[in-house]
Amino acid sequence: MRKVPLTESLRIIARGSLNWLTERPIVVSFEVTDSCTCWCRHCDHGGPKDTSHDMKPVDYRRYMDVLGPVVVQISGGEPLMRRDLPEVVRNIKSDSGLPFIILVSNWSLMSEERYLNLRKAGVDEFCVSLDFPDERHDDFRKLPGLYRNLSEIVPKLAALGHDDIVMNNCITAANVNEVNKVADRAREWGVNINFSAYSPRRTGCRDYFLNTPEQLSMLDRELANIKSRLDKSHWITNNQTTLEATSRYFRKGGAPSCKAGLRWLVVTSNGYLQPCSMQFKRYAVHDQARMVREFTRTNTCDECYVSIRSYLDKGFPQLLRENVAEFFSFQSGQ
Length: 334
Hints:
single chain, 334 residues, alpha/beta, TIM Barrel
């Protein structure tokens, strides 16, 4: 998450503390469609899919009433393929201003009009994928012209001054030597940057996992440079402990003690609860407690350290200090 204003942080603290104590999810990720405009090399979604069973906008209100998350991630597939996306957002947002809504997208279909309409509907943060700081991004996403589009639309919308755009770089064996260059590109465009880790569980392919001593040494050098920039580089949204945990994840080949299903969960496009996007045990909307008993309490999967987990896979005091208290700011510097 980017840095957010004090009043918004206080609302997140209050609701998050209650959810933590009552074992309700802190974050819910709504996969609003399985269709996508890309065929990304590191992802198990790709291309057009049958959307006839996608939930309607009004359906999301019931899930919010039951689950009551503090933060909602809207993803896909590519969520911008839904023309009714602003209506989906309005049914997720409450009058209190919560949840904090993050739209995760490749931005192949973004325009100024859509950006402004989604902000008005209630999106608080736009998370935009960026694998490389140049046209190699197109090859990785298998969509020609995508990087050029980003290089035009991202700075244009950042110049509106809302400070709500965060580029997300998923670290893979293919781009590990580009981490700081991607951070520099985000700064050039006037937006924030967040780093996450590739998981081979999504596709079953370990080619993009950091497998060699040379790749791990490169990761250490790149992340050491990122960590040295944190105090003065307000556009880098990761904290130091998350970067250190990312390094451990790659070195050990996994990260144990996952709390998927309890601290966060996924709602599929057709309305089932899943512990995460890579665990396909499905439950009805009222069955989160059963999911926790049957899945979370016995879960031994250690195959990811995705962005949601990196923010929530900590003790409660540390979570408050790092993922909320550190966001007490009034304007993120560039």
